[in-house]
Amino acid sequence: MKTDVVIIGGGVIGTAIARELSRYRLDITLIEKEEDVAMGTSKGNSGIIHAGYDADFKTLKGQLNVKSNLQFDKLCRDLKIPFKRIGSLVVGFTKEDFNKLKDLKENGEKNGIKNLKIITDDELFKLEPNLNPQVKYALYAPAAGIISPYELTIALADNAVINGAKVLLETEVKDIRIENGQVCGVVTNLGLIETRVIINAAGLYADEMAKGVGENFKIKPLKGEYQLFDKQWGNLVNHILFPIPTKLSKGILVAPTVHNNLLIGPNSYQVEEKDDLATTKAGIKEVYEEAKKLIPHLPHQDLVASFAGLRADVEGGDDFIIEASKKIRGFINVAGIVSPGLSSAPAITEMVSDILKEVAQKIYPQLELNYKNNFTETLPAQPRFTDYVDKIEKWQEIIEKDSDYGEIICRCEKVSKGEIIRAIHRPVPAKSLDAIKRRTRAGMGRCQGGFCSPRVLRILSEELKISPLRITKKGPGSEVLKTMTKEMIKETGVKIKDEVRV
Ligand SMILES: Cc1cc2nc3c(=O)[nH]c(=O)nc-3n(C[C@H](O)[C@H](O)[C@H](O)COP(=O)(O)OP(=O)(O)OC[C@H]3O[C@@H](n4cnc5c(N)ncnc54)[C@H](O)[C@@H]3O)c2cc1C
Asked: Do 98 and 240 share a domain, yes or no?
């Protein structure tokens, strides 16, 4: 197989780059080792689109965050995903904290944010009535917002595919091929893919990819643990609440999610393994205790899930690495994309596109990066029952066209069969229970899939035309069923001896 550009990694950065480059007349191939996009850091984070007062104005983090923040309203409208610009408050208790808030405000203004404000007393408690009464000051940033990071990543990938990019899932880059100081291909588990440009957006593994071209930065994972409360608690706070940030992180926040759950976390500590996503007893305690300093009455009885994410922290570095390799032509690093990477994704893609133009001139002098005249910026709307609860007659019209929208499969999140079938046939298709969950929310509610998982499994099996025994939770090795009941065997006609995998 031959392609103009290979992008390694289907996180928010790789998929955003794929979408941006699909504006041009280029053959683009995104390679992702997992069974779906958004399986790395882009699924386990706070989902905040930061205002951009935190990072130093001299860094890429500071500049790209502010530049990107303004783009999210249009981007999310185009991609038909929810985004709420609810604003953030960094809160302080002491005079020393007040001085830190002043510094943050000054830094934010240097970064180009105009409407930052320090607020106190009545003004503050009017905005946040449930805030700890001992809080004295807050830096208010109306530009901050909340988003679902995996819904954004999936939508970016879908849009790239609609515009001609290829997304290869379950395909792992094992080696980089170089000839005369120039990239000439990637070796994957499925064979060689010839290319003269590689964009390294491999997240936690970007150092291992870069090693292939002689670069030697090192990524150390920094874990962050979270707790998520049931939907009825999203209204406990109106804004994203942060403590005073430290050198290591922005601190343990309390915020509603875009689907109105309440989220607390993350803590921050180094771990050895790049796949260590376990939550810990100590972490749960730390997150809960710290969050209580902001909102004293947390609904511990309504905790629905805890999870963790890993920051791709570059040893000894404190900024994104976005540059063409100085050693090998055709290799571009987009590495060390820690927070605010999600918030900076749109401006990162523009920067990568400019680097690619320079790189391409040296490699393919005949290649001009011309825009396609048929680039489609938007995705079609996905009907969701939860968007229609107040306009039930309109939902009735949808059911009349397709009766699958009239059958509710996930009771907690109110997801219909039609929504699940649609997710299975999206440009980047859902093939597992978790992939359905990320696209539709089926299984994300209070019972965490206890009721709907068997039903979703059956729909996946019918639509993909494969045995229920081959349906997985999250890709090969996570098959859900070990065997089937007599009733299932009769219904599906599966020969059990041939299919059982234990
Ligand atoms: C706890 C936490 C909280 C955060 N909160 C926020 C926030 O609120 N706001 C914000 O702006 N940012 C936040 N971030 C940062 C943000 O999540 C990241 O910047 C962003 O998700 C990075 O995306 P990525 O595409 O670089 O990496 P990833 O999402 O990890 O994607 C990399 C992909 O590459 C794939 N891959 C790796 N190696 C290979 C290979 N050899 N072959 C093929 N594929 C490969 C992986 O499977 C993965 O899917 C947070 C991060 C963490 C950990």
From this structure: yes
**Who's near 380: CB < 8 A, 6+ residues apart?**
80
> Same domain for 228 and 295?
yes
pLDDT for 500? 46
Q: What is the domain-level CATH number for residue 130? A: 3.30.9.10
Measured by CA distance, the residue closest to atom 25 of ligand 1 is 11
pLDDT reported for residue 363: 81
Return the number of other C-beta atoms located less than 10 Å from residue 118's C-beta.
16
Mean pLDDT, range 248-269, rounded to an integer: 95
Residue 202 CA: nearest ligand 1 atom is 34
| Co-location of 202 and 232 in the same domain | no
Summarised one tens digit per residue, pLDDT across range 137-167 is 999 999 999 999 999 999 999 999 999 999 9
Whole-number Å distance, alpha carbon 258 to ligand 1 midpoint, is 19
Note whether 119 and 239 are same-domain residues: yes
Split into its structural domains, the chain has a count of 3
Kindly state the average pLDDT of the residues 88-105: 97
Protein residue with its CA nearest to atom 9 in ligand 1? 48
The DSSP element (H or E) to which 463 belongs, if any, is helix 453-464
Q: Which of 45, 60, 226, 239 has the most ligand 1 atoms within 8 A of CB, as the residue to mutate?
A: 45
Assess whether 99 and 165 both reside in one domain.
Answer: no
Taking the centre of ligand 1 as the mean of its atom positions, its distance from the CA of residue 40, in whole angstroms, is 5
Same domain for 491 and 421, yes or no, is yes
**What whole-number distance in Å separates Cα of residue 5 and Cα of residue 430?**
25
- The full length of the chain comes to 502
Strand 48-49 with 145-147, pairing: antiparallel
Q: Is 79 helix (H, G, I), strand (E, B) or coil?
A: helix
Question: pLDDT digits over 442-492, tens only?
Answer: 999 988 999 999 999 999 999 999 999 999 999 999 999 988 777 777 766
Q: 186: CA distance to ligand 1 center in Å?
A: 21
Q: Are residue 75 and residue 87 in the same domain, yes or no?
A: no
- For 236, the domain range is 83-142+221-310
| Mutate which of 41, 264, 311 for ligand 1 pocket (most atoms within 8 A of beta carbon) | 41
pLDDT of 499 over the 70 cut: no
Tokens standing for residue 494 = 């599966």
